[in-house]
């Protein structure tokens, strides 16, 4: 979109709009897997991340009530050895700030506080809620799970409804200082791992972020919140009640949580297409393939989308090549993102089994450590395809 707003309708390239009036990412962590680190490195922005990230040694899935490890997936240095890139943890605000700064350095113009009302796909014209119009050669809709770009330009025949899961998630952070002051939980910041306690319809995923300065906790549980809202306050006592039969380490950790944000967990059905009929509007990220967070891949897939799209656009000689480039982009990306979307849902079902025969079988398979693992994240075959992906060549690479 353009920021050149002379007569309210302009032709422009290289600018982007967002609904928020300022950068305002919530205070929570996000995992950055090797497949997205590959893109950050290729674009030469990875060095900026070094001082903000944490490198966990393992992802440890634990039994919810005892904390006994069920499955340990080594991450550092194993991911770098296997896939050439590390597995990282970062604060969302830092991630957003670093990417924003990198874009500014490239000369991208941002125009914040612009809510899109609709997009005319035949002319690639974005209409804001204020009535302002911007026309471009190409519109890329990265406007999240409740995308207006999708609903008005790419899949205009219906309003695509997100599928709310029966779960939502509380998010909270605790300072390193506070963690260290409590001997029952201090090990969680000194022994750096992603820990995930899994139980019936609930799990707690926790890891240090901001170079160890904060401890990030995600608590998935049955409940409802508003789809697309990232900052709804949750009730701390209600939150603790959800985990009252969890490992004493988790319960002790939760005594340090003073406030929580509540997010609904939802995904999208498979869309019929990601590119508008005119070939001038495309979707990326959650607008195209919002997924449940049980593979920690939603943002990683958005990063991959961006890389593949840029690669295809790079091949264009003139604007008449754009439609073909977008079709290629969709062809290369849609199936992979939808497979991961389905894998994430499946992982949630596997993590959230009730105690019983099926859960015992799952635990035995997880402990077998033979490469196959019911946890998609840890299953060797799926993991190679997931983390070894090169979004520039659309193939996976592994040294395993
Ligand atoms: C609990 C949880 C944990 C997660 N953990 C991970 C993880 O560890 N790793 C990972 O890779 N992913 C994770 N994800 C997924 C990740 O957060 C999302 O996939 C990612 O944020 C999607 O990015 P996006 O830019 O496509 O959409 P969003 O982050 O939703 O951004 C959409 C943007 O569009 C703007 N917008 C919306 N409507 C309009 C409009 N009408 N006009 C203009 N602008 C508009 C919004 O203001 C926003 O800035 C997690 C998700 C959840 C819920």
From TrEMBL:
The keyword Iron-sulfur does not apply. Keywords: FAD, Flavoprotein, Monooxygenase, Oxidoreductase. InterPro entries: FAD-bd, FAD-dep_Monooxygenase_BioMet, FAD/NAD-bd_sf. Residues 34-340 form the FAD-binding domain. Pfam families: FAD_binding_3. GO terms for molecular function: FAD binding; monooxygenase activity. It comes from the Eukaryota. Belongs to the paxM FAD-dependent monooxygenase family. This is FAD-binding domain-containing protein. It comes from Candida theae.
